[in-house]
Amino acid sequence: MISPSLTITGDAHIGSQLIFKAACLEIPAGGWTCLLGRSGVGKTTILKLIAGLDEHISFTGDISSSDAMPLAGRIALMSQTDNLLPWLSVRGNVMLGSRMRREHGQSDQADALIERVGLTEFSDRKPHTLSGGMRQRVALARTLMEDRPIMLLDEPFSALDAGLRAEMQELAAELFAGKTVLLITHDPAEAARMGDRLYLMTGGGIEDLKAILPQQPKQPQQTVREFDSAEVLAATGSLLSKLREIP
Q1: Residue 121 CB neighbour total at 10 angstroms
Q2: Sequence ranges of the domains in the chain
Protein backbone atom coordinates (compact mmCIF):
# COMPACT_ATOMS: atom_id res chain seq x y z
CA MET A 1 0.00 0.00 0.00
CA ILE A 2 1.22 3.50 -0.87
CA SER A 3 1.83 5.77 2.13
CA PRO A 4 -0.36 8.90 1.90
CA SER A 5 0.05 12.29 3.50
CA LEU A 6 -2.45 13.25 6.21
CA THR A 7 -4.10 16.48 7.32
CA ILE A 8 -6.02 17.04 10.54
CA THR A 9 -7.83 20.29 11.36
CA GLY A 10 -10.40 21.13 14.01
CA ASP A 11 -11.36 21.27 17.68
CA ALA A 12 -11.58 18.49 20.27
CA HIS A 13 -13.39 18.15 23.61
CA ILE A 14 -13.66 15.38 26.15
CA GLY A 15 -16.91 16.05 27.93
CA SER A 16 -16.98 19.76 28.69
CA GLN A 17 -13.18 20.08 28.66
CA LEU A 18 -11.56 21.70 25.62
CA ILE A 19 -8.52 19.65 24.59
CA PHE A 20 -7.45 21.73 21.61
CA LYS A 21 -8.94 24.38 19.33
CA ALA A 22 -8.29 25.25 15.68
CA ALA A 23 -5.51 22.70 15.38
CA CYS A 24 -3.91 22.23 11.98
CA LEU A 25 -1.39 19.46 11.42
CA GLU A 26 0.02 18.33 8.08
CA ILE A 27 1.85 15.00 8.00
CA PRO A 28 3.84 14.51 4.77
CA ALA A 29 3.85 11.14 3.02
CA GLY A 30 6.71 8.72 3.50
CA GLY A 31 8.57 10.61 6.24
CA TRP A 32 8.78 11.21 9.98
CA THR A 33 6.66 13.96 11.51
CA CYS A 34 7.47 14.70 15.16
CA LEU A 35 4.92 16.39 17.42
CA LEU A 36 6.29 17.85 20.65
CA GLY A 37 4.59 19.58 23.55
CA ARG A 38 3.98 19.41 27.26
CA SER A 39 1.85 16.70 28.84
CA GLY A 40 -1.90 17.23 28.64
CA VAL A 41 -1.86 19.56 25.65
CA GLY A 42 -3.61 17.10 23.32
CA LYS A 43 -0.86 15.28 21.41
CA THR A 44 -2.15 11.81 22.21
CA THR A 45 -5.71 12.97 21.50
CA ILE A 46 -4.64 13.80 17.94
CA LEU A 47 -3.05 10.37 17.61
CA LYS A 48 -6.22 8.68 18.88
CA LEU A 49 -8.37 10.64 16.46
CA ILE A 50 -6.24 9.56 13.51
CA ALA A 51 -6.25 5.96 14.74
CA GLY A 52 -10.02 5.94 15.19
CA LEU A 53 -9.77 5.39 18.96
CA ASP A 54 -11.99 8.35 19.69
CA GLU A 55 -15.15 7.05 21.34
CA HIS A 56 -14.84 9.49 24.27
CA ILE A 57 -13.61 12.44 22.17
CA SER A 58 -15.93 15.02 20.59
CA PHE A 59 -14.19 16.23 17.43
CA THR A 60 -15.34 18.95 15.08
CA GLY A 61 -13.16 19.13 12.02
CA ASP A 62 -11.62 16.98 9.32
CA ILE A 63 -9.07 14.19 9.05
CA SER A 64 -8.11 13.41 5.47
CA SER A 65 -5.51 11.57 3.42
CA SER A 66 -3.93 12.72 0.16
CA ASP A 67 -5.45 9.76 -1.71
CA ALA A 68 -8.94 10.45 -0.29
CA MET A 69 -9.16 6.84 0.91
CA PRO A 70 -10.49 5.84 4.36
CA LEU A 71 -7.82 5.46 7.05
CA ALA A 72 -9.40 2.37 8.60
CA GLY A 73 -7.20 -0.67 8.03
CA ARG A 74 -4.17 1.39 7.04
CA ILE A 75 -2.81 2.35 10.47
CA ALA A 76 -0.53 0.62 12.98
CA LEU A 77 0.00 1.98 16.49
CA MET A 78 3.00 1.56 18.80
CA SER A 79 2.73 2.97 22.31
CA GLN A 80 5.10 3.73 25.18
CA THR A 81 4.31 0.41 26.88
CA ASP A 82 5.03 -2.75 24.92
CA ASN A 83 1.61 -4.29 25.79
CA LEU A 84 2.89 -7.83 25.23
CA LEU A 85 0.59 -10.66 26.29
CA PRO A 86 2.46 -12.52 29.04
CA TRP A 87 1.13 -15.96 28.13
CA LEU A 88 2.33 -15.76 24.51
CA SER A 89 5.85 -16.30 23.22
CA VAL A 90 7.78 -13.69 21.27
CA ARG A 91 6.51 -15.28 18.04
CA GLY A 92 2.97 -15.44 19.38
CA ASN A 93 3.01 -11.74 20.28
CA VAL A 94 4.40 -10.76 16.90
CA MET A 95 1.66 -12.78 15.17
CA LEU A 96 -1.15 -11.61 17.46
CA GLY A 97 -2.91 -9.41 14.89
CA SER A 98 -2.76 -11.96 12.08
CA ARG A 99 -4.10 -14.69 14.36
CA MET A 100 -6.97 -12.50 15.53
CA ARG A 101 -7.85 -11.93 11.88
CA ARG A 102 -7.56 -15.69 11.27
CA GLU A 103 -4.87 -15.20 8.65
CA HIS A 104 -2.84 -18.29 7.94
CA GLY A 105 0.65 -18.87 6.58
CA GLN A 106 2.18 -15.86 8.37
CA SER A 107 4.79 -17.66 10.49
CA ASP A 108 7.60 -17.23 7.94
CA GLN A 109 6.98 -13.49 7.80
CA ALA A 110 6.93 -13.31 11.60
CA ASP A 111 10.20 -15.22 11.85
CA ALA A 112 11.80 -12.89 9.28
CA LEU A 113 10.77 -9.83 11.31
CA ILE A 114 11.97 -11.40 14.55
CA GLU A 115 15.30 -11.98 12.87
CA ARG A 116 15.44 -8.35 11.70
CA VAL A 117 15.03 -7.11 15.26
CA GLY A 118 17.70 -9.54 16.47
CA LEU A 119 15.56 -11.89 18.56
CA THR A 120 15.62 -15.17 16.65
CA GLU A 121 17.10 -17.13 19.53
CA PHE A 122 14.35 -15.79 21.82
CA SER A 123 11.40 -16.63 19.55
CA ASP A 124 9.91 -19.14 21.98
CA ARG A 125 10.58 -17.14 25.14
CA LYS A 126 7.85 -15.44 27.18
CA PRO A 127 7.93 -11.66 27.75
CA HIS A 128 8.84 -11.86 31.44
CA THR A 129 12.19 -13.43 30.52
CA LEU A 130 13.19 -10.48 28.29
CA SER A 131 14.82 -7.15 29.05
CA GLY A 132 12.96 -3.89 28.48
CA GLY A 133 14.81 -3.23 25.24
CA MET A 134 14.07 -6.72 23.95
CA ARG A 135 10.38 -6.33 24.77
CA GLN A 136 10.28 -3.07 22.81
CA ARG A 137 11.88 -4.86 19.86
CA VAL A 138 9.12 -7.46 20.03
CA ALA A 139 6.56 -4.62 20.01
CA LEU A 140 8.35 -3.11 17.01
CA ALA A 141 8.24 -6.42 15.13
CA ARG A 142 4.53 -6.80 15.99
CA THR A 143 3.86 -3.30 14.62
CA LEU A 144 5.76 -4.15 11.43
CA MET A 145 3.83 -7.40 11.10
CA GLU A 146 0.72 -5.30 10.52
CA ASP A 147 2.46 -3.86 7.42
CA ARG A 148 0.43 -0.65 7.37
CA PRO A 149 1.44 2.46 5.39
CA ILE A 150 0.73 4.80 8.33
CA MET A 151 2.58 4.38 11.64
CA LEU A 152 1.50 6.21 14.80
CA LEU A 153 4.10 6.15 17.57
CA ASP A 154 3.21 7.44 21.05
CA GLU A 155 6.53 7.92 22.90
CA PRO A 156 7.55 4.33 22.22
CA PHE A 157 11.18 4.75 23.34
CA SER A 158 10.81 7.08 26.33
CA ALA A 159 11.06 4.34 28.97
CA LEU A 160 14.40 3.09 27.65
CA ASP A 161 17.85 4.18 28.75
CA ALA A 162 19.81 6.46 26.44
CA GLY A 163 21.77 3.72 24.68
CA LEU A 164 18.77 1.50 24.02
CA ARG A 165 16.71 4.52 22.97
CA ALA A 166 19.25 5.44 20.30
CA GLU A 167 19.38 1.82 19.10
CA MET A 168 15.60 1.59 18.87
CA GLN A 169 15.33 4.93 17.08
CA GLU A 170 17.75 3.76 14.42
CA LEU A 171 16.07 0.38 14.05
CA ALA A 172 12.59 1.89 13.78
CA ALA A 173 13.76 4.46 11.23
CA GLU A 174 15.31 1.69 9.13
CA LEU A 175 12.31 -0.62 9.28
CA PHE A 176 9.67 2.11 8.77
CA ALA A 177 11.42 3.58 5.71
CA GLY A 178 8.89 4.85 3.16
CA LYS A 179 5.96 4.82 5.60
CA THR A 180 4.11 7.89 6.84
CA VAL A 181 5.09 8.20 10.50
CA LEU A 182 3.73 10.45 13.27
CA LEU A 183 5.91 10.35 16.38
CA ILE A 184 4.66 11.89 19.63
CA THR A 185 7.67 12.76 21.76
CA HIS A 186 8.81 14.91 24.69
CA ASP A 187 12.45 14.50 23.71
CA PRO A 188 13.89 17.37 21.62
CA ALA A 189 16.99 15.34 20.78
CA GLU A 190 14.84 12.52 19.41
CA ALA A 191 12.85 14.97 17.29
CA ALA A 192 16.03 16.62 15.96
CA ARG A 193 17.53 13.25 15.01
CA MET A 194 14.48 11.71 13.39
CA GLY A 195 12.13 14.41 12.18
CA ASP A 196 11.52 15.35 8.56
CA ARG A 197 8.86 17.75 9.87
CA LEU A 198 8.61 19.19 13.39
CA TYR A 199 5.62 20.69 15.19
CA LEU A 200 5.14 22.13 18.67
CA MET A 201 1.68 21.82 20.23
CA THR A 202 0.65 24.29 22.96
CA GLY A 203 -2.61 25.56 24.37
CA GLY A 204 -2.54 28.19 21.64
CA GLY A 205 -2.36 25.78 18.72
CA ILE A 206 0.24 23.94 16.66
CA GLU A 207 3.40 25.69 15.47
CA ASP A 208 5.42 24.48 12.49
CA LEU A 209 9.08 24.40 13.52
CA LYS A 210 10.60 24.02 10.07
CA ALA A 211 12.99 26.88 10.83
CA ILE A 212 14.51 24.80 13.66
CA LEU A 213 14.77 21.55 11.72
CA PRO A 214 18.39 20.79 10.75
CA GLN A 215 18.85 22.33 7.33
CA GLN A 216 20.91 19.42 6.07
CA PRO A 217 18.49 16.62 5.09
CA LYS A 218 19.15 13.00 5.87
CA GLN A 219 21.48 11.49 3.32
CA PRO A 220 20.47 8.51 1.13
CA GLN A 221 20.55 5.31 3.19
CA GLN A 222 20.76 7.42 6.39
CA THR A 223 17.89 6.56 8.73
CA VAL A 224 18.56 9.19 11.41
CA ARG A 225 20.87 12.18 11.76
CA GLU A 226 24.05 11.77 13.78
CA PHE A 227 23.23 12.66 17.38
CA ASP A 228 26.49 14.59 17.87
CA SER A 229 26.40 16.59 14.64
CA ALA A 230 26.47 20.37 14.98
CA GLU A 231 23.08 20.67 13.25
CA VAL A 232 21.36 18.20 15.57
CA LEU A 233 22.90 19.71 18.70
CA ALA A 234 21.81 23.20 17.63
CA ALA A 235 18.29 22.01 16.79
CA THR A 236 18.04 20.17 20.11
CA GLY A 237 19.00 23.32 22.00
CA SER A 238 16.50 25.42 20.07
CA LEU A 239 13.70 22.91 20.65
CA LEU A 240 14.48 22.75 24.37
CA SER A 241 14.33 26.54 24.56
CA LYS A 242 10.96 26.53 22.80
CA LEU A 243 9.60 23.94 25.24
CA ARG A 244 10.83 25.96 28.22
CA GLU A 245 9.12 29.09 26.90
CA ILE A 246 5.68 27.44 27.11
CA PRO A 247 3.68 28.94 30.02
Answers
A1: 10
A2: 29-56+149-247, 84-147
